[in-house]
Amino acid sequence: MLFTNGRLIFSDRSEDDLSLRVEDGKIAEIGGDISRRGEETIDLQGNYLAPGFIDLHVHGAAGRDTMEGTLDAFRAICAYHASGGTTSLCLTTITAPLEEITRVVRAIAAAMAEIPQIRGAHVEGPFISPEKSGAQASQFIVEPREEFVRQLLAESAAIRRVTLAPERPDALDLIARLTTLGIAASGGHSAAWDEEARAAFECGMRQITHTFNCMSSMRRRDGVRTAGLLEFALSEPEIFCELIADGHHVSTTLMRMLYRAKGAGGICLVTDATAGAGLPNESRFSLGDKECVVRDGACWLADGSALAGSAARMIDLVRQMVAQVGVPLHEAVRMATETPARAMEWKNKGTLAEGMDADFAVLSPELEVVRTFAVSQASSPDR
């Protein structure tokens, strides 16, 4: 198959007058006049061709939730997010009894062979801080004691990320074990002090969950202004920062500050979408045992006390970064593609280059998704 007459978005630029050939689920060739007689051709009609978006933090969509743990729910979630250009995602659990979390992780493992978009599970909680629980169910928060860790890691084949609070007892040991297993440890829902964040980094933590949200910031201790997890993440070049750039979770000024600190190579756009994504305004849905509502394009706890994830798709975040933050299009796309792929060490994903998986999002000049292409996982053996 040959894609022609498009504007290709690379990590460092956009370029016209190039064609791209796909063979056996991989990008085989990129160039000018590379057409072959009789070849199947897709005319992009001047639209952009971007790598497929990668969302590392997805709880749900279209009234369905990852915690349902069913193939039907997973299909609905993935179909909705494909409409926003997402071709790879981590279905994300919430803080719940460990038996429930492991049940869902097993269901995700089984679904990976059926649904090409699913790359594995992101376990958000239960090893988080009660002080920074946000919309998570605080009654199910536990310390990462050995019996709990052993129960969770029995499902490690499908787990790709774990969000935890690095200051919790035994959290450093867990971070080191996750790192050894090739599972990303991400600091989040945390009240950590600067030195606790640094200790987690030294044990292998290289990611931060929904930057600015549910995390410690600068505080006074013994008369001295001391950094929290936020400032540590901003100052450490090797840390990848999630950003929910939906226009509700983080102000434009804070998004600009993060962009200035980390650049496109350090920011992973994530939706943190919950079951309310794709539902009409004032629709009701549940997040665990909490009643939530869609209001003014965002998802809230029904009492309005806190945001409950987002109602966004990845294309909405890319558009927000371009229109409101002033980021060049190729850099906004990089935050949704190459950077999360690099953060997760997914070597076959995230860029338009020969040998990479043929995951694509076709975008209009107005940055609407025209069409999404996702390669089967059988063509993509990296973890």
Shape: globular
The structural domain count equals 1
- In the CATH hierarchy, what is the class? Alpha Beta
Structural class: alpha/beta
Low-confidence region ranges: none
Assigned CATH architecture: Alpha-Beta Barrel
The CATH superfamily name is Metal-dependent hydrolases
Helicity, in percent? Answer: 25-40%
- Estimate what percentage of residues fall within beta strands: 25-35%
End-to-end gap = 26 Å
The beta-strand count equals 22
Strand order of the largest sheet: 6-9-10-11-12-13-16-17
Mean pLDDT: 95
Largest sheet: 8 strands, parallel
| Number of distinct helices | 10
* CATH topology-level name: TIM Barrel
Mind sketching the topology for me?
Elements: E1 2-9, E2 14-23, E3 26-31, E4 41-43, E5 48-51, E6 53-58, E7 60-61, E8 64-65, H1 71-82, E9 86-93, H2 98-111, E10 118-124, H3 146-153, E11 159-164, H4 171-180, E12 184-187, H5 194-203, E13 207-208, E14 219-221, E15 224-226, H6 229-235, E16 240-243, H7 252-262, E17 267-269, E18 284-287, E19 290-295, E20 298-301, H8 314-325, H9 329-335, H10 338-344, E21 360-363, E22 369-373
Parallel strand pairs: 1-4, 1-5, 6-9, 9-10, 10-11, 11-12, 12-13, 13-16, 16-17
Antiparallel strand pairs: 1-2, 2-3, 5-21, 7-8, 14-15, 18-19, 19-20, 21-22
Helix pairs in contact: 5-6, 8-9
